[in-house]
Design brief:
Blueprint (H helix, E strand, L loop, with lengths): L3 H22 L4 H24 L5 H6 L6 H11 L8
Helix pairs in contact: 1-2, 1-4, 2-4
Length: 89
């Protein structure tokens, strides 16, 4: 099972959230927000859809993917622990 796209999207989602929060808490440059915001949104949506389409998906893994920032990484952990013929949705 190739979860590389989900891993990349989850990492990008977390990184852009850190950038956005760091920007808001420090200098609040609109250029950073206008670049990182849409990238974060796309990565977030991709992570949710990728976790929901995984053949080893479970309800907890699908629901935890909806958490912004860390949800994709948590979903990856849950998906890695699920056996192939196991508890699919």
């Amino acid at each position: 099972m190739n979860r590389q796209p989900l891993r990349i999207a989850a990492a990008v989602e977390l990184a852009t959230l850190v950038v956005l929060l760091g920007n808001v808490l420090t200098v609040h440059l609109p250029a950073i927000s206008s670049l990182a915001g849409p990238v974060h949104g796309c990565a977030y949506l991709f992570t949710v859809v990728a976790a929901a389409r995984d053949p080893r998906r479970t309800l907890p893994a699908t629901l935890v993917a909806w958490l912004p920032g860390i949800g994709g990484l948590l979903a990856l952990r849950l998906l890695a622990r699920t056996p192939l013929g196991g508890q699919g949705m």
